[in-house]
Design brief:
The protein is about 20% helix and about 35% strand. It is an alpha/beta fold. The longest helix is centred in the N-terminal third of the chain and has 17 residues. Pfam families: DHQS, DHQS_2nd.
Length: about 400
Amino acid sequence: MRFAWIDLREVPRPQLQAVVDAAVHTRMAGVLAADAELLATLPPTVTRVLVPQGPATTAAKKPGAKEAKADKEQQETRSATDAKPSAATGSSADAGIDVLLRTFTAQDQLDALAADNRATGATPVAGFIDVRDDRTLRLSCAGAMVLPYTVIHFADPTKIPLEIVLAAAESAEGKLVTVVGDLEEAAIVFDVLERGSDGILFTPRSADDVFALARLLEATTPQLELCTLTVESIRHVGLGDRVCVDTCSHFEEDEGILVGSYSSGFVLCCSETHPLPYMPTRPFRVNAGALHSYTLGPDNRTNYLSEVGSGSALLAVGADGRTRRVVVGRAKLESRPLLEIRTHAPDGRLVSLTVQDDWHVRVLGPGGKVLNVTELQTGDELLGYLATDKRHVGLPIGEFCKEV
């Protein structure tokens, strides 16, 4: 489960309380600060992370920070540190601190942090490291293996060092937290090597940034309840324009996208992952249907196939109803003979699909069975999805709408 810590140290003072309130309201996993008294005001539902020695986790990211502000933060940090007993006493948790964050730049410092974590009753100690070269990269990998949390700032924009740490710490019990500069970088970090960083450390400029981050963290694709559709008829309808959707992802053999003539019902159209005579497989492609058709995308939103293009996001759907987000690389619109497939759902609802009239175009049946559209017969069963909402500009809406 990915998570985020909010770093309060560089938040503009006029925005500080609003950011704190937003972090609590959105149930952010943690809040990091150099002010122990501020952290003590937070509810126990938030992991309160104290920086007792002020490692420059965001200063490294933002070299333009004012010296006067840095000096003030250091003074606050010293006061907080002087007021706190050592981690080994276990008193920090009693004072409203859940995790202490300390910098390590050498193996002996990492060993000391690991020893603090082994102390009975001690407040967990996380480590911060600034990765700038091979030595610090190897040290960060070592930290990820032994610390409960390893917070890493990567000096360079490449994500290769993060990939190396993720691979090295695959079996580690601890959590990796990556410092990010903005929400766009956060989205990228969460996708590195498919699993991504466990968490991020982010400095918002306002409460709006916190709410936007919360939406990013909640972005998931649903498990769909597919149904069995029964073929009523197939009909040759003549020449029209159909769309092939070429994605940036490799489809599984039982995956495709949901397409339908009506927004209330869709058929699971098969990807070109299965061998065909006369042409190679194209496992990134779905020969989807006529350009008027609806297709289902993330956030329960539909698009016409005519609207789909490079950069669009759609849902890849498996025969068991699992879904994942895929990005479209291109859409190909070409004139071809078309075939109308009319089916009915268990509730009697009509579900229609118009596709290219050719044997190599396929849809999926129960269990992921691959069916060539020109060989369909009355009574054959297809996999489909029934929507409960009507649509206006692709958005669900509760209104009367009849499609025929």
